[in-house]
Amino acid sequence: MSKTFGEGSIVCKNAQVSGSVSIGKNNIVHPLASLVSAGGTLVFDEGNLVEEFVKISNNGSMKIGKYNAFRVGCVIESSAIGDGNIFQIRSKVGAGCKIGSGCVIGIGVEIPPGTEVPDHTIFYQDYLHQRVIPSVLDRNLKLCKDEIDLIKSQKLLESHGTLGAAPAAGASGGGATATAAAAP
Question: If you count Cβ atoms within 10 Å of the first and of the last residue's Cβ in the chain, which end, N or C, has fewer?
């Protein structure tokens, strides 16, 4: 099973990364996060932020777009995620869900398996409370980019060590490949 980490990505050494996982450039995976591909490939595009105790897993292929924020303790089992989404603390997205772009899954909200969530949908309180706000995508993209820039500029994860820190632009090399996952 291969693991690849794109340029400028930081994957803390005590994050669990197992199976076939491809992480694009400028992603950040915090300590104690779990990225598990049990079947198929788990692919992250650029600029995603995965916080502590997040569990992202798949039994088939899963594609995650650009600049998504996965907050502490959320559980993601969907098959596709667009760009600029925020998955709040302890939210859960069931197996086979397809999440559009510019969505917010609120604190503790659970999206049932197989649900297709259209672009710009915001869930709050529970799955039944939702609204569509088209202007949220740009805000979400900026929020995620700004957080990644802050974490990198302040070297906030430096003390945790890294499983897969690829060189930043201008440094030697282009991407890193890890062959073993860190201990959970």
Answer: C
pLDDT tens digit sequence for 43-97: 999 999 999 999 999 988 999 999 999 999 999 998 899 999 999 999 999 999 9
Please tell me the pTM assigned to this model.
0.84
Distance between CA atoms of 20 and 39, rounded to whole angstroms? 8
Instruction: Say how far apart CA 87 and CA 55 lie, in whole Å.
Output: 12
Taking Cα atoms as reference points, which of 80, 101, 104 lies closest to residue 91?
Answer: 104
Q: What is the CA radius of gyration of the chain?
A: 15
* SS3 readout for the chain: CCEEECCCCEEECCCEEECCEEECCCCEECCCCEEEECCCCEEECCCCEECCCCEEEECCCEEECCCCEECCCCEECCCEECCCCEECCCCEECCCCEECCCCEECCCCEECCCCEECCCEEEECEEEEEEECCCHHHHHHHHHHHHHHHHHHCCCCHHHCECCCCCCCCCCCCCEEECCCCCC
Chain centroid to CA 157: how far?
16
